[in-house]
Amino acid sequence: MNSKVFLVLRILLGLFVLVFGLNKFLHFIPDFPLEADALEYFTALSNSKTMTLVAIVEIVAGLALISNKFGALMALILMSISINALLFHLTLDPANSAGAVVLLVLNVLVLFGYKDQYKALLN
After folding, report:
1. Alpha carbon distance 121, 123 (integer Å)
2. Residue 119 to residues 24, 65, 72, 123, Cα–Cα distance (Å)
3. What confidence tier does 33 reach under pLDDT thresholds 50, 70, 90?
4. Is the pTM for the entire model greater than 0.90?
5. What is the Cα–Cα distance from 15 to 121, expressed in whole angstroms?
6. How far apart are CA 85 and CA 123, in angstroms?
7. Dihedral angle, C-alpha 58, 30, 49, 103, nearest 10 °
8. Per-domain boundaries in the chain
9. Following CA atoms 80, 81, 82, 86 in sequence, which dihedral angle do they give, to the nearest 10 degrees?
10. What Cα–Cα distance (Å) separates residue 115 from each residue in 6, 10, 19, 120?
11. Dihedral angle at the C-alpha atoms of 35, 36, 38, 39, nearest 10 degrees?
């Protein structure tokens, strides 16, 4: 992958997760209405402090990707968040799934950009 393209993708993913991680604490993006099942599930995640952990991981990962420190590791860790966000939206909130699709695509592209750093893991 072209290094300039990878740089842009890495920074976009970093900014994406940093903004959404910070939003979980600062609430600067308005909440969108959720169906009853989606709201019940999201409320359970929030009450169990799971969303706080997700926010912390997103903030750390965003900063790591932007600064390119431990970016390969954070891209791997973000994959679990990306897949869970996509599954949540596709099953419980399909009307608002575009952001989760963008997150997953960016995450996969960044993982592909870091592929040389994963070779030792896959041997």
Report:
1. 6
2. 34, 19, 12, 6
3. confident
4. yes
5. 27
6. 30
7. -30
8. 1-27+71-123
9. 110
10. 12, 13, 26, 10
11. 110
